[in-house]
Amino acid sequence: MRAVVARVTEASVTVDGDVVGAIDEPGLLVLLGVHADDAEEQADTMARKLHELRILRDEQSCATTGAPLLVVSQFTLYGDTRRGRRPSWTAAARPGHAEPIVDAVVRQLRERGAHVATGRFGAMMSVHSVNDGPFTVLVEV
User: Fold this and answer.
1) pTM, rounded to two decimals
2) Catalytic: 135?
């Protein structure tokens, strides 16, 4: 499982002109990709890492500050561009495999007490964010 995590001052996801998820205060925008070999057991590890990741101001985390997270499923994180001019998506999990794992990460974050907004799995989404720093990291489990 792979996540691109950006520290933001605000972020939102729009589908067909409607905002489906948003955070309007400093927090994290998480673009979450699931590999074809990933299992739900990894969701707890990813949720813990995201919740406790100390990249907010003054080396704080969402766990210590209560800052929100906006989690957006992003299969393209497993696009392989090493050959040719078109990415290969073979490493990305198929939707039926990926969606329950993404849902498990969100559920685990909420069980930890995190405020979590989400995009809409499988939808064409417009993601708006105001990066803070900018500060962006890659998290893999």
Assistant:
1) 0.96
2) no
